[in-house]
Amino acid sequence: MILDSFTIKHPFIDTTPDTVIIGSGPGGAACAYRVAMAGKKVYLLEEGWHHSYTYHGRDEAFALIHFYRDGGLTAAMGDPPIPVLMGRTLGGASRINQACALRMPQKHRKKWIKAGLGWAEKKLDEYYDDIEQLLKVGPVPENMLNRNGEIFMEAMKAAGGTPELMRRNAPGCDGCGTCITGCPTFKKRSTDMTFIPEGLKNGLTVFCGAKATEVKERNGRVHVKGQLIDQYGSPISYFHISARTVVISCGALFTPLLLFMSDHPDPHGRIGKGFYTHPTAIVFGIHEETVDGFDGIPMQGYCDSFFEETGCVIESMFLLPVTTSVALPGTPAEHLQLMKRYRHMSMFIVQRYDSHSGFITHWADRPFPFYNLAPDDETGIVRGVAICARGLLRSGAKEVVILASGGIRYRREKEINEHTISFRKGKGFIYSAHPQGTCCAGENPERYPVRPDLSLRYSERIFVADTSIFPYPTGVNPMLTAMAAGYHAAEGVLAIL
Question: In terms of CB atoms within 10 Å, which end of the chain has fewer, N or C?
Answer without folding.
Answer: N
